[in-house]
Structure formats: C-alpha cells, structure tokens
Amino acid sequence: MAQVVAFHVGDRVHVLMSTSTQMVWHPVASTKRASVYCCAILSLGDASTIWEVGQSRGHVEVLESLPSHARFFEEYLRGTGEFAKVGKPVLFSGAARGMPAYNLWTDDYLRDKHGHVLLDQVEPEKKETRTVLAQEDWTLRKFLDNYADKDIYSTAITPRALSEEVYLLPFMNCGGYLDKLQATVLWFSSGGTSSVIHSDSQQNVHCMLAGTKHWILWRPDEKIDSREYGWIQAEDEGKRDPQFKDAYGQFAGRINVSDVDLKKYPGWNKMPRWEMTLRAGDCAFIPKEWYHYVESTRQRSISVHVWFHNGNVFEGRGCDKLEAKLYNSSDFVYSLSDCTFRESRKRNPPCRLPKERLARTEL
Binning pLDDT at 50, 70 and 90, where does residue 252 land? Predict the structure, then answer.
C-alpha cells in the first residue's frame, strides 16, 4: 500500500508523493498554521484499516456556540430527520475552554494540588483488548511519575477533587438530566491509545482538555452487534475460544482495526460512518448506543466524560427555577463535584447550587 503525506497551509496543499487517485484521507497532526494528512492508496487485495472501510458521511456537525436547552434535547438528543429516534452526534467547538481544568491541568499542577487523590482504575494497555484487568488505587502522583514512558491509561471515575474543576455544559443545567447522571470518567494517557469498537447504553458528553482524539461513529440501527460483523459477548465467547477466555463485555472483538478482513466481514465496507476530531477545548455529544471507535494522537491526552440518561419529554421548569434564583441557566452553573452520580446518589436534589455565584466564563 503506497502512502501520501500532504500539508495544508493556508489555501495551498503540498503533496509530497502520490501514485494513485483512489485515496482515503486521515488527519494525523495539526498546528495553528498547518494540518498534516496521511493518505492510504488502496488497491485490490490491500489490507484496509477501519478508517478506510465503509461509506464516509464526513465529519459530524460542528457548532461554534452551544445550543439552547430545548434545541439540544429535540435536535441532538432525540434527533430529527435522518437522525430521528437515534440522536445526532455533534461537536461543540471550544466548549471546555471556560473550565478551570482546561487552563490548570498541567502535570506540575496536578502533582502539587491533587497528587494524593486515588485513581480507581488504571489500564495496563493503551490498545484496548478487554482481556487484561485494570489495576486499582493508584495515586495520581504515582500515575504522573509513570505514564510518560509506560503503556498505562487512566479510565478512573473522575476523583471528586478534580471534579471541582470540570463543569456540566450549560444545556444540561435543566431539562431533566440532573437526577439521571450515571458516571463521570477521567481518560488520561501519554497518547497513542485506541479503543475496541463498542457502544454505550448512556448518553455521553465528552470534553477534551489536552491532546486530540479521532473518532469513527456508526448508527445504532446498523447490525454491528451480530456475528456477521465480528461482534462477541466475551464471557460466552471465552468458553469456545481461548483467545477470549479472560475477556469481558460486548464489542467487535473479531475485528482487527488495523487490518479489517473484508472477505469474512464484507458488511463493514457498505456501512455509512461519520468521523469526528476532538481537540483540546472541544466537547462532543455522542448519543446512546451509537457504535464508535476512538484513538488518540501521540501526545499527552486528557478528557472527561459524563454519562447520563434522559426522560421522554424536555423538563423546562428546571430552567425557570434556576433563573428565579438569579442563575443564568445558559452559563456554567454546576461543577461535577456539585452533583452526585448513580453509584453514590444520596443527595436530594441531585446537584446543589454553588454557595457563591462564581464568575464562570460565559460561552
């Protein structure tokens, strides 16, 4: 398979090498002045990565400002048009830049301020296989001392002390989500990570605080969760195949994302897919049950996500109550530490209003 590298500077594209017209472009790096793309030139019989198979529908929608509470619920969470009943993925450019974590979370700051906090789950592999159990109860200081030169990856529940520096996006301030918050996870590595192809049963707001992640997304009504697409239920599969004897969960375990076997699994080459690139300061909404694959570039990478559920109707009364208490419901109001999640829910109401009206940056 031949390779092409192209530099896009201003309005000009500089191609270093090209030998074919059938190309699949994939972003590999970017700066303020230039973007670098890698192009695989395909020929019959060549191996195909997961980025090269299927029918690309392009990048998901990008919004430069956050939607209103009602618009988020109707257009993105529930979905309209071709996305009706399945939801619509969307990227919110720069939405995390007003969070303290975006500006504060250097390694030195995290070590000095939060080095004592515990990470309850550290994966001993950067390429997810779901066959190796995570390690428990690392201090953040221990993680920081090791992550740069070891294949480790925090997938811990976001520690409470760190949660004070990450906010719910404003469209979640009201609408019926606060008592349906499920979990928040801290994703932290030196980069170069990759996931399995999987789906989640919860709605997901994912905010990038450092580094870059590239995503592929497939609709939930595709038949990926079938043997025809290499899907496995690991606990059952392990009884038949020693390769999966220690595996857990449900995912496309028989798909090698670096070399998709299109002879055995031809459906992958016919399926529509969407791409998404999250850079530091961006957030995204990934609707529940959308299948996805994620990889990070080879640089320090930190993100935090919030899993949540929703009701069948938009509950607008919560917005009115916030405004009556002189809070701007379209601004940052709640940090993650102001709220409780399913695993530890004892508080009623589920999110407490901050005692002081902090000067939180409006988006």
Answer: very high
